[in-house]
Design brief:
Length: 276
């Protein structure tokens, strides 16, 4: 149903003031990343209806209150299509073609808003862990792709055990083993059908350290400090060089996989010293 919001399908070109449907595609991280363009699209459309994955409905509804948001991306004929005015549609991944043509077009400012009530809940949970940095860590993506989205066990062990004063919190969204390491696992926050849970937890952490996966985009969109461990062969969104993420001002990219954990440890020592 990707473009079947009208018959025949009509694709919005960002030049006409119309009622449009903006529909999600690809993975959750991609939907979040491309959502940075929604504010730009709002300047050129009369009304925007967002058809996203169900997991993002609450988070997007709060973050884009002037849009009508439905988590029906996987449904063939959602009921709202008979209620909302629709002139044209466009895939969310097509928005950068119109609004991200050069470096200056990337505002790199936060645009998602976590649930304040759930933030208070996770704030209390994290405070209960005691003094010390609360650092979210994701060491395994949904698909390891030959190992490039997975931090090897020996290096994960070295990183975590080198900082006993840090409270580590798992941000893996699948049930990967923690190997008995001192990592707090809150499955109700990360293995959930509502990404609002994960967003609230991330918003209350001091820092996120992650291999490339959706939580990097979530942290960046929330404005949370995040260190991304980019593999030597990475997706285009991580570019080939530099330590700044084009899409997010709060995300720092670490490069050089063989020395990755040593770089992270050095930076975390400095970050921990500032905290104490």
């Amino acid at each position: 149903k990707a473009t079947a919001y009208t018959t025949p399908a009509k694709i919005w070109d960002a030049n006409t003031l119309e009622d449009i449907v903006l529909y999600g595609e690809q993975g959750i991280g991609d939907e979040i990343m491309f959502a940075s363009c929604i504010a730009d699209a709002q300047k050129h459309a009369r009304n925007i209806t967002i058809d996203c994955t169900a997991k993002l409905e609450g988070l997007f509804r709060r973050s884009f209150p002037d849009c009508h948001v439905y988590g029906t991306r996987q449904e063939d004929a959602p009921v709202w299509m008979a209620q909302e005015p629709i002139d044209r549609s466009i895939a969310i991944g097509s928005l950068p073609y119109h609004y991200r043509k050069q470096d200056a077009d990337f505002p790199r400012t936060p645009y998602l808003v976590a649930d304040p009530e759930r933030r208070r809940m996770y704030r209390a949970l994290l405070d209960g862990l005691g003094e010390g940095l609360k650092v979210g860590i994701s060491w395994h993506g949904g698909n390891s792709l030959g190992g490039i989205r997975k931090l090897e066990l020996d290096r994960l062990h070295d990183l975590v055990t080198s900082f006993p004063q840090v409270h580590w919190v798992s941000l893996n969204y699948k049930d990967h083993p923690d190997y008995g390491l001192p990592i707090h696992v809150y499955k109700y926050a990360t293995q959930t059908d509502d990404y609002d849970d994960t967003a609230a937890l991330v918003a209350e952490l001091d820092l996120v350290i992650s291999v490339p996966q959706a939580v990097v985009h979530l942290a960046g969109a929330l404005g949370k400090e995040c260190w991304c461990m980019a593999p030597d062969i990475a997706r285009w969104i991580y570019c080939r060089e530099g330590d700044q993420h084009h899409w997010y001002g709060s995300v720092t990219i670490f490069r050089g996989w063989e020395m990755m954990t040593e770089q992270i440890k050095e930076s975390l020592h400095a970050r921990n010293a500032r905290h104490t």
